[in-house]
C-alpha cells in the first residue's frame, strides 16, 4: 500500500488533512508546496522529507532554503516552482489543494505529466473545463474527486456497467450559515457571521463561498465536468446535517446515496486508495444519534450565485472561468471588509457581462480573462 504522493497547498485545511492521511498510511511524500507559510512548510518538510518543496513567494522561498539547508530538499519558488513540484517528481498521485484559479497551471502540470490528480481545487476544473479534461484524456491520467459531494457521487457510481443508466445527480448543500434568511436580512451580515460555518472547518475563501452558495454553483459545474452530465441533470438539495454527502438517481428511479460523518479525510483517503478501502481516522456514523435527516429546496432567489453558475455552464466556453474569477475577487473584497455581502453576486454579474466568450481557448486566455474580471470587480466595488 505505501504509495508516492505530492501535496500542492499542503499548509491549508485540505493540505494538512491530506498529511494526516499520509501519516496514517505511511505514504512517501515527494513534494509539498504552499503560498507563504514558511514555518508550517518547514515543519512538514522535517516530518515528511519531500525531495522538492516550493513557496509561491520568492522571498519566503529564499528563507525556507536557509532554514532547510541541513536537509536533502530542493526549494523552488513561484508558479513555475509549484508546477515543477506538481509534474516533475516520482509521485503517482498529486493532491491539488491550492485555493482558487492559482491551481490551474499546477492541475495541468500534473495531468500533462500523466500523474493521477486527487482534485480538491475545483476552481481549476470549473475554469479550465475542456483544457483540463483533454490533458487527462491525452495522457491517460485520472481525475479523482476530493470534494465530498463529488467523492460521494464517484463512490455511488462504483460497480456500474459502462452503459450506466444514470439519470440524475443530486448534490447536497449544507445551506451555510445564512440558511433560511431572506435578502433583507443579508443586507448587513458581517464577515464573522459568514465565516461561522455550521458543519465544516475550511479555508476562508470556500467558507465565504458556502455562505453565498457560490460554492454549490462551482460544484454543479464540477459535477458536469467530472461525470459528463448536462447541467439539467444536476439537482441541488439543502441538507443541514451534512451526513448524506450526495446522491445519484438511475433510470428506474432508484436513488443511491453515500453517508458518513462530515470529515474530509474520508474523501481524501478514497481518492488516494481507490478502488480499495482501508481503515480511516474518521468516526463511525451513528444514525440513531443523528436521529433526523432533513432536506429542503434551495432558496434560489436569495442565493443568486447558484443561478449565476448554472447560466455560466449553460453558456459554456469561457463563461465559467469568467464568473469564477469575478467571484474570487468579490469574495476577497468582502473578506477585506471593502464590500457588503449582497454586493458579491451584483459584482459577479456586472463583471461577467464584460467577458467576451470563446469556445476554443488556452490557459493564457483564462489568465487574461482573470485579470480583466478582477479589474472589472475592483472598478465597481
Ligand atoms: P486553504 O486556504 O485552507 O489552503 C489553501 C492552500 O493553498 C494553502 O496551502 C496555501 O498556502 C495555498 N495557496 C493559496 N494561494 C495560493 C496561490 N496563489 N498559489 C499557490 N498556492 C496557494 O484552503 P482549503 O479550504 O484547504 O481549500 C483548498 C481547495 O480545496 C479549494 O479549492 C476548496 O474549494 C477545496 N475544498 C476544500 C474543502 C475544505 O473542507 N476545506 C472541501 C472541499 C473542497
Ligand atoms: Mg464540497
Order of strands across the biggest sheet? 4-3-2-1-5-6-7
Report on the biggest sheet. Answer: 7 strands, parallel
Q: What molecules are bound to this protein?
A: nicotinamide-adenine-dinucleotide, magnesium ion
Approximate strand percentage: 5-15%
Spatial extent as radius of gyration? 20 Å
Percent helix, as a range, is 40-55%
Q: How many DSSP helices?
A: 18
SSE order in H/E notation? EHEHEHEHEHEHHEHEHHHHEEEHHHHHH
> What is the terminal-to-terminal distance?
51 Å
User: Which regions have little confidence, pLDDT < 50, spanning 5+ residues?
Assistant: none
- Total domain count: 3
The residue-averaged pLDDT reads 96
Secondary structural class: alpha/beta
Q: How many distinct beta strands?
A: 11
Summarize the structure.
The protein has 381 residues and is α/β, with parallel strands linked by helices. It contains 18 helices and eleven strands.
Describe this structure in words.
The protein has about 375 residues and is of the alpha/beta class. It has helices spanning about 15-25, 40-50, 60-65, 80-85, 105-110, 120-130, 130-140, 150-155, 185, 190-195, 205-210, 215-225, 265-275, 285-290, 305-315, 320-335, 345-350, 365-380; strands spanning about 5-10, 30-35, 50-55, 75, 95, 115-120, 145, 165-175, 235-240, 245-250, 255-260. The strands form 2 sheets. Strands 4-3-2-1-5-6-7 form a 7-stranded parallel beta sheet, with helices on both faces. Strands 9-8-10-11 form a 4-stranded mixed beta sheet, covered by helices on one side. The protein is globular, with a radius of gyration of 20 Å. The relative contact order is 0.12. The mean pLDDT is about 95. The chain binds nicotinamide-adenine-dinucleotide (NAD) and magnesium ion.
Amino acid at each position: 500500500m505505501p504509495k508516492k504522493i505530492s501535496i500542492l497547498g499542503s499548509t491549508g485545511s485540505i493540505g494538512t488533512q491530506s498529511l494526516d492521511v499520509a501519516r496514517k498510511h505511511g505514504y512517501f511524500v515527494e513534494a509539498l508546496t504552499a503560498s507563504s507559510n514558511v514555518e508550517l512548510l518547514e515543519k512538514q518538510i522535517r516530518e515528511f522529507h519531500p525531495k522538492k518543496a516550493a513557496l509561491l513567494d520568492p522571498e519566503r522561498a529564499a528563507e525556507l532554503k536557509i532554514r532547510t539547508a541541513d536537509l536533502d530538499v530542493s526549494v523552488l519558488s513561484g508558479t513555475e516552482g509549484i508546477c515543477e513540484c506538481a509534474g516533475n517528481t516520482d509521485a503517482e498521485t498529486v493532491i491539488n489543494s491550492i485555493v482558487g484559479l492559482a491551481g490551474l497551471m499546477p492541475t495541468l502540470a500534473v495531468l500533462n505529466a500523466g500523474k493521477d490528480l486527487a482534485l480538491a481545487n475545483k476552481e481549476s476544473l470549473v475554469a479550465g473545463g475542456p483544457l483540463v479534461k483533454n490533458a487527462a484524456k491525452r495522457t491517460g491520467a485520472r481525475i479523482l474527486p476530493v470534494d465530498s459531494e463529488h467523492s460521494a457521487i464517484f463512490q455511488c457510481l462504483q460497480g456500474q456497467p459502462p452503459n450506466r443508466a444514470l439519470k440524475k445527480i443530486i448534490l447536497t448543500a449544507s445551506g451555510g450559515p445564512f440558511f433560511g434568511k431572506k435578502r433583507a436580512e443579508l443586507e448587513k451580515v458581517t464577515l464573522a457571521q459568514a465565516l461561522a460555518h455550521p458543519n465544516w472547518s475550511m479555508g476562508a475563501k470556500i467558507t465565504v463561498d458556502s455562505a453565498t452558495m457560490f460554492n454549490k454553483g462551482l460544484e454543479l459545474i464540477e459535477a458536469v465536468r467530472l461525470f459528463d452530465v448536462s447541467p439539467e441533470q444536476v439537482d441541488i438539495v439543502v441538507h443541514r446535517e451534512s451526513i448524506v454527502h450526495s446522491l445519484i438517481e438511475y433510470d428506474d428511479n432508484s436513488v443511491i446515496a453515500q453517508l458518513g460523518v462530515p470529515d474530509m479525510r474520508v474523501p481524501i483517503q478514497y481518492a488516494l486508495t481507490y478502488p480499495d478501502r482501508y481503515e480511516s481516522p474518521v468516526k463511525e456514523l451513528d444514525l440513531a444519534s443523528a436521529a433526523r435527516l432533513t432536506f429542503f429546496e434551495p432558496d434560489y432567489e436569495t442565493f443568486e450565485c447558484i443561478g449565476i453558475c448554472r447560466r455560466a455552464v449553460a453558456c459554456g466556453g469561457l463563461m465559467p472561468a469568467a464568473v469564477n474569477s469575478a467571484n474570487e475577487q468579490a469574495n476577497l473584497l468582502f473578506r477585506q471588509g471593502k464590500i457588503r455581502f449582497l454586493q458579491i453576486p451584483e459584482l459577479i454579474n456586472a463583471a461577467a457581462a464584460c467577458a467576451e466568450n470563446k469556445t476554443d481557448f488556452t490557459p493564457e486566455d483564462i489568465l487574461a480573462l482573470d485579470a480583466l474580471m478582477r479589474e472589472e470587480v475592483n472598478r465597481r466595488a
